[in-house]
Design goal:
The chain is 32% helix and 28% strand. With 103 residues, it is an alpha+beta fold. It has one domain. α1 crosses α2. The longest helix is centred in the N-terminal third of the chain and has 21 residues.
Length: 103
């Protein structure tokens, strides 16, 4: 997962470690279950790290802070009926999120 931090980034180390640990767990699940895989688009804001993936008409965005991993799933343009948000912190939650994206 190549990315670099600019010197003006204010993302703290715990946020970075949270994101790295999360994606390590995701890769273990993907390898074990033989799920589809794609490298994420990685964005860094003032206080969070963001990973994004697309697969067909589906999109998953995961927002990392130092203590949490929250996601938004999108499968259409209707934000009331074609989007869902939640937390993906346990292995079961991470796998369910990825299984949805990969299907």
């Amino acid at each position: 997962m190549p990315f670099s931090l600019q010197s003006n980034s204010s993302v703290n180390l715990n946020t970075i470690l949270n994101a790295i640990n999360w994606i390590i767990e995701l890769r273990k699940i993907v390898n074990l279950r033989k799920y589809w895989w794609s490298e994420p688009l990685v964005n860094i804001s003032d206080s969070e790290l963001v990973f994004e993936w697309w697969n067909g008409g589906k999109k998953v965005t995961v927002y990392f802070s130092d203590l949490s991993s929250e996601f938004i799933k999108v499968w259409g343009a209707d934000i009331d009926n074609e989007m869902e948000e939640g937390i993906a912190e346990t292995n079961d939650q991470i796998e369910a999120l990825w299984k949805w994206l990969a299907s």
